[in-house]
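Dear colleague,

Thank you for sharing your sequence with our group. We've completed the structure prediction you requested, and as agreed, I am returning the results in plain text so they can be pasted directly into your records. Please verify that the sequence below matches your submission; if there's any discrepancy, let me know and we will rerun it promptly.
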Amino acid sequence: MPSKWQGVPPDWSAPAVKAVSVTAADSDLATVPCRAVYVGTGGNVALMLADDSAAVIFTNVPDGTLLPFACKQIRSTSTTASGLVAVY
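Please find the predicted structure tokens below.
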């Protein structure tokens, strides 16, 4: 059964409708930015936010944190955290 949210533009206050395990890489996640990143095992996370052209490093992110940032890349350079999940 297709999701009732399929094809609906995201409303940032609506619940997430998709989550994808990701490996940090120095390339774009997908055709659209994710709305948040879940960090399973803590460490540093280097993100390129949706409207930025350079990455920012969030240091010492604890286990189990949901970073509420729309981002287009989770950079492998400087990312030490693992168990990353892009939330859409």
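Summary note from our side: Strands lie at 19-21, 36-41, 43-49, 56-61, 65-67, 71-75, 82-87.

Kind regards,
the structure core
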